[in-house]
Write the structure tokens for this entry.
Amino acid sequence: MRKHWKLIPADEVEVHQLHEALHIHPVFCRLLVQRGIKTFDEAKAFFRPELSQLHDPFLMKDMDKAVTRLQLAIREKERILLYGDYDVDGTTSVALMYSFLSSRHANLDYYIPDRHKEGYGVSMQGVDYARQSGVTLIIAMDCGIQATGPVAKAKAAGTDFIICDHHLPGTGLPWAAAVLDPKREDCGYPFKELSGCGVAFKLAQAFLIENKEPEEELWQLLDLLALSIAADIVPMTGENRVLAYFGLQELNRTKRPGLKALIEQSGRPLPLSISDAVFGLAPLINAAGRLADAQQAVRLLLSGDKYVATDNARVLTHRNKLRKEFDQNILSEAKKQFEARKGWEDLRSIVLFQENWHQGVIGIAAARMVEHFHRPAILLTESNGFAVGSARSVPGFNIYAPIKVCEDLLINFGGHDHAAGLTLPIEAVPEFTRRFEEAVRERITEEQRIPEVGVSALLDLKDITLHFWKVLNQFAPFGPGNRSPIFVTKNVVDSGFSRVLKDNHLRLAIQQDGSPPVYGIAFGQAGALAKISKKKPFHVAYKLEENHWQGETTLRMVVKDLWI
């Protein structure tokens, strides 16, 4: 399927005005305008983040109540339970808050729910554990905003909650001592897109301010926060970009034995980027909760012994290897099952059930099905006698809406526009498959059915220099809202040195108007060699990256698409 190349708009007058003010390559001015940056001062703040750009934590609704309740717990030596979700955001939240509080308060414990037995969020089992352990204050992080039942149960038993969440609230707020969530309708906090760990960080910041303690201690926690921002795919804008910028610096010089061991096991060289955190570190942490006990991830992050940390990191690496094997097996089976369905090419959606698929990895496999077939996908497996699954969507299509149309068939479901989870009786799967397909067909547009490449700017090969790269790299850290730019270069030709690598990939060596060859890699595009070697001009869409080989640093294209 040919992809649609769409040029991201930028006001040409604003681009020109910014070029007059900054005197940098016009392409960079275009990228800045696309990010809403239109003046010299805005560009300076973007390129030179400062910790002073962070917002006052007391602008968050209930922050004063949260600090007061935490002070009381410390003063009265209450038992505090740190409760976090089983993913990277939740486990880093617990590790961050434990690191912050442990020097002030000895009576601390933490709890991560079992993904398969308890599911997402604050569970009744977790509340029971707190009651049995003599806990009188639970700080719930990356969860809790919709846990009205468990929070009420805890309150009735004499246990208070401070909730640090970043998900959308339900119809009513839990009966907690404090509910910190920038997405509360009545919360005036200026930045709404913090991670769960980011909200926990703001609580720590507020505690220091209220107690007139120096904030420098906070900056040592930014390594954990950077991991959460990267892994939770929150917008890399505003406060998140500042926190990630300084957090990456802290991550690259971290003194935590656990993070050091994790970095070593990932095989990623320093300095780490956001991409390294997303694809190198986060899967190792997530592997704990996907296949076994997510508390092991917290133990690793908090470990003070390098040998213990190394052992834990090796266990997580092994689990991640198993996770990859499960993922590949599920993906292979799912592809075969879907393509065996009569008329699959005309279907607008994918719904598949296989009772032996691993519940911890079907979300990843569903996302890969979306990548491969470019249509909304739901993969279901058996758990406790029910069909339990994960839904993933194509860009721009709200998958939550067609699921809600079928809610009379469901036991429960939840999520947002691009991802959701659901549970239903196994016998209802065929009817759900039929009705979900109908609902998607009614809603999805032709544009949403075509894979799209968002092009930031046109670029000539002669402009690709190390100086250009150094300026481009100042746009980092990259993420949603500040994506690594995709460029298009038109009318290039094969220099004669392009070749196939490992039977599947294409190593490009291309020229434009007689320029020196520029090299790139086009994964899975080996079949294009026969077409480009005819010396006919073609267009290429790509990202740029640094390539280190035998002590030499060069730039290369990572090709997203070829227009031949």
